Amino acid sequence: MNNLDSSLQAHNKLEKEANNLALLKDRVDKYHDLSTQMSSILTIFEKRLGNLEQTILPVYQETEQLQKRQQNLEATLNCLESVLSHYDVSQEVCQLIHQGPVEGNITVFLDALAKLRDANDYFRHNNSQSVELENVTSLFNTGCEGLSQHYSMLLKKHSAPLKPVELLDLIYIEDDSSDEYTSFRQLSQTTREELYTISHWLEQNLREYTNIYATERGEVVLRSLQLLKDHQKSNSWGHEALRPRHSGRQPEPKKTTSARLQQIFEKKANKLYLRATQTIEQSTGFSIKKASSHSDHLTSEDLMDGDQELDKYLVMLLGLQRLLNWERAIMIDIIPQSKHNDVFATLAYNAIDLVVKDAEAITQRILRCISRKEWTSALGIFSALKRVILLQPDIDRTYDPAQREQLKKVLKKLQHTGAKALEHFLDVVKGESSTNIVGQSNVPKDATVHELTSNTIWFIEHLYDHFDVIGSILAQDVLYSTQLDTILMKKALPVEERNKALLAIYIKKALAELNLSIMNKCEQYNDQATKHLFRLNNIHYILKSLQRSNLIDLVTLAEPECEHSYMEMIRELKASYQKTWSKMLVGIYSLDELPKPVAGKVKDKDRSVLKERFSNFNKDFEEACKIQRGISIPDVILREGIKRDNVEHILPIYNRFYEIYSGVHFSKNPDKYVKYRQHEINAMLSKLFDDSA
Measured by CB atoms within 10 angstroms of the end CB, which terminus of the chain is less buried, N or C? Predict the structure, then answer.
């Protein structure tokens, strides 16, 4: 039973698979028929496409050839038209070229020149023997020459030197930013644009224009400076009021030239100081506080030292710098970048040369003043030198290397003149010690402070205000630098202190020569007391002046024992002066050598001795008082101190002599010999150094 069921299932399954196989064969036959039909269709399509290509391709090729012919024809026509235009261009633009360019409509003229240039290029490359080449070249050159003339005309027409008042306003403006220059620009925006267009066309066509621009604008700068120089010679110089730069603004009150310069350079000094402190703070993290007045770049003493000619020159130097800044701003709008340096160098040369020559003239004049011992001019040089140094950042920013080298001549001239002034001053002080002519007195009759002493102290006191500048000058001298090295071996000094040390070395030399001169001059007095008092007056004045001005601290850098040396010198001179009374006191000092009175009487042979002692004392004392009443001791403390020393030295000796012998009967006329009581001696000593007593 089970076998039967299994056979039945297998039969059914076989029958089913046979049906599926028959169905698959049927479908394969259908797919084969479809493939055959599709292949037949594609074969027919390929034949038809091949027939179409054989028909269309010749048409396409013929059309392409026609298009090329058309393009060639159009190119030929254009080329022919261009060639014909080159032949016609001379007649077309001839009148325009000869008329020249018109201001405000330069494009038309440049277009005409462009046509001539193209024609020139065509004939030069294609028909160099053509007459037209000569015509076009000649006309093109004429046009370029006319364009250059128009360029020059525009610059002349719209350029004029600044009036002195305008230039002074430009110098004294508080802010030197570009906005401040706007009101002074004479070239309008339209003119500058036209000049810019011409400059670039000439540059592209290799035509010269830079000399034209540099010459015309350089003349503006030079004439502006010359007008300022003429104005400086007028009576109104130095008292102008600034014009308001904006409407509704009142003019600034009048200031002297020195005051305005002071304000300008104080601002520059403050900028330099701020820049330096910011650099130090950023690099070290330390905050820097501003130093005292002596460390400022400029002080009020600069105004006192101001020489009018030097002030005028500094204004010229500032004017040059402002004018060239102004010119650089204009040049940027007109001249191609590649030509800036060359144009600016040519433009500025004559103006810089004028300023350098002025510096030479001024320094020569100041050297003549110094030779006449006009030391204020020397101080003016140091003040001017300090200000020129403050201008160096502006000079570095404004000028190119060659111009900076040219302007360095100004700095070198001032430095050379300053060095000559210092050297000549020492020579004068030194020369005073060897110019005492026999029989001719050049010392004060009253033995007061000599003019050389007061002048020397005045000069070195004012040198301290310029220690930084003077230090830089002295550092170039081997003698001073060697002595500075010796000081630095003992003590390290910052840069600022080194300049002070160099000045201290110079002052030490000046004081040494002054001391020698005073010592030599005192020999012109015949009286020993006067000699000592003359030296005492001068040495005391030197010490007190150094102490009062704090210069003693400065000199200590070079001579640590300076103050002690002067004090010891004063002590010795006082002692030497007191010894001059010895001749007068020697006869009454030693009582052991005098006769001893008995009951108010002495022997007859001893009376002449007492007469002689009293007479000699009276004579010497009266002569000394007569001389010393005419002597002046200006310092009250010194004068009263010497009077006190005289009383303490003389009066006790005289009192002792007087008390013993004034009552002795050694003469029938005692009043002839005993002329002075103790209080009278005291009174006469108190009237010394007073010619009116």
Answer: N
